[in-house]
Amino acid sequence: MRNDDVERYVEALYEGKADAALERTLASIRERGMPDISVKPGYGRLLTLLAAASGAEAALEIGALGGYSGICIARGLRPGGTLTSLELKADYAELAQFNVEAAGFAGRVEYRVGEALDSLAALEAEGRTFDFFFIDADKGNYPNYLDWALRLGRPGALVVGDNTLLKGRIVEEDSTSPSVRAMRVFNERIAADPRLQGVVLPAYDGLAIARIV
Ligand code: SAH
Ligand code: MG
Predict the structure, then answer these.
(1) Exposed, middle or buried: residue 85 (CB in 10 Å: 0-12, 13-18, 19+)?
(2) Which of 63, 70, 134, 211 has the smallest count of CB within 10 Å of its CB?
(3) Residue 1 C-alpha to ligand 1 middle, in angstroms?
């Protein structure tokens, strides 16, 4: 049994359940030659489920790309809940906003363009807090983004991090890559930081889920 085979098996369970908004989003990303790195469908569904199950009303996403994960998160929010999304590239943020609004969330999403660390400091200065975080931007800053989630997170907030296994590079013993080193710190904190109750799921490219206790 290989991971790829079982992932395909699980995806096939959803065959025939066309999701027009997500398919349009993926097509728009391809058309523009943007990278094919939207969150995997199974984890997209999990984002919706986690946001809904936790009753999230103010979500913060770090790394928007074309809006795929933004749509998944927005779908799980309470009625009237909002998504704030941080994205380095103006053209990506513009496409993401278009796609998320087209999926039915106009007026409930805010995109901030620039270095996420700068936007996070601005959000803190504005007194903003959140009850759901999705960390999915530059991998070397994951521990910093986790610190920011702890600062801006309401008690009980969920923190989700994508790609925490770095396509298996996380277990290369002799790795000196800064992303690998940073991601190890991130995963270790998900498992052991006393302020977090967390798990790391090893399917796809790894997903960390933690609750701020
Ligand atoms: N969450 C998206 C995928 C994000 S891909 C989805 O699953 O649909 C990672 C994104 O992070 C890219 O769009 C990239 O431009 C952005 N990014 C990279 N470094 C960043 C930084 N320092 N600040 C903000 N965004 C950054
Ligand atoms: Mg990702």
Answers:
(1) buried
(2) 211
(3) 32
- How far away, in angstroms, is 213 Cα from ligand 2 center? 25
Q: What DSSP string runs through 130-147? A: EEEEEE-S-GGGHHHHHH
Please tell me the distance from the alpha carbon of residue 66 to that of residue 180, in angstroms, as a whole number: 25
What proportion of the chain, given as a percentage, has pLDDT over 70? 100
Q: How far is the CA of 122 from the centre of ligand 2 (A)?
A: 24
Confidence of residue 124 (pLDDT cuts 50, 70, 90): very high
Residue with tokens 């504005």: 126
Q: Is the CB of 58 under 6 A from ligand 1?
A: no
- The answer to whether the predicted template modeling score (pTM) of the entire model surpasses 0.90 is yes
The finding on whether 92 has its CB within 6 A of some atom of ligand 1 is yes
Domains of the chain: 3-212 (3.40.50.150)
Tokens matching residue 16: 């025939």
Pick from 76, 36, 38, 39: nearest CA to 57? 76
